[in-house]
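The data are set out underneath:

___
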Amino acid sequence: MRFAIEPAYPLHTRLTILREPQSPGHDAFTLALGALGWVLGDGQRAERLLALTGLTADELRAGLGDPALLGAVLDFLAAHEPDLVAAAEELGVKPAELMAARERL
């Protein structure tokens, strides 16, 4: 006696999920988080961020999902062009894309 198992979908049909390509340059939130990670990767730069924004480390941690806080990080980079350029290079985007992300936040 043979048992036949039928597939859930006919074998001649393929499922396709269409998505727009995602990259940090297109998602302002992800790009800002990447920029924050870049800033925090350097102790002196991180201290300068906290000093200039008036944030504490706890406030920074608590506000990771806050667009205003992430916008402040991008403002911090915009205020010092060498950091803006270096962060953009590290993230693989143009500095203008970081500033456009700031506007979208």
The helical segments are 28-40, 43-53, 57-62, 67-78, 81-91, 95-104.
